[in-house]
Write a structure and sequence with these properties.
The protein contains one helix and 23 strands. The protein is mainly β and about 350 residues long. The protein is elongated and about 75 Å long. About 0% of the residues have low confidence.
Amino acid sequence: MLSNRITAMVFLLLCAFSCVVLSQPQWDDESLPTEFDWIKLTSGEWLKGELNVLYDSELEFDSDNLGLLHLDWEDVAEVRSAQVLSVRFNNGSVATGKVLLRDGQVSFNGDKTESYGTTSIMSMAAGGTKESNYWSAKVVLGGNFKRGNSEENILDSHIDVKRRTSVSQFKFNYLATLRQIDNIETENSHRISTSYDFFITQKLFWRPVYSEYYRDKIQNVADRVTVGLGVGYHLIDSAKTTWGVSAGPGYQYTRFVSVSEGENNPEGSGLFMFETLWDYELSNVIDINALYNVQLTNDDSGRYKHHSKIGMEYELTDALDLNVSFIWDRTEKPQRDEAGVLPEQEDTRMTVGLGYEF
């Protein structure tokens, strides 16, 4: 009787062990998968799915079972891709093909091998001829609708779109706030900004073009268009923290809603722009980010214009976040309208919304 129980237990343990072994990928040293990308973590765990992008020491991987993951590059021990990847190294060279990254070597389709250290790969992107693999987007919506003794309608929206490859990055950002109290519009602001960055090294990038459109009639700005160029540098680029700065010259065109007698409308001015971006991973589910931008123009265009946004993202699911943001805008010399009313120099607001990333 006892021997039968021992035999049954041994049989169950062997079955369990066999299931574990069979669930692990079985590779030859140089073999590549044909259906899924596979990555091995430094803990020994294997994940299968689709590798999207490696950027700023963070690997974006769409796991077959766990959903969209953001992994620290230092936690990845091995990569075997079924799809074509484009890899850029710190020396500026770019290689494309199916990737085998293993034991301190990276090879492409088995016919090209380059040595690398833990920081020698600058970026990696999926794509080949599939354009959709380069793009990602996030939409944040928040609002407040009050009824009773008074009516209040508030709508906040924030849209981020990125196209990332191994050598460049395009960014589109839209920020808007609409506020109406008792059918009287108290805020209607829109800010659209775009930029294109080309990486010279892992830390240094060239920005051949950036642009911004701003509109806020409450601030007496009917349209404000900014175009320019610049250079940027990543001061910190670690697994948990990124901090970068950029600066450059440009030109700004402003059309006011109305101006006092004798003032120019519209107004044009050369400018100098400085911007800094900071992102910190506080925990596995909480990210903190900050943006500060200042534009120096002539006095008639406002002289100093400051824009700052500090936000916190709390991950609810793989794709859904709770977003809290504090936004501050200041114009050093706002333009009076035709009635002589001078807008306030500063605007501040806090927004709370749900963000969906895809």
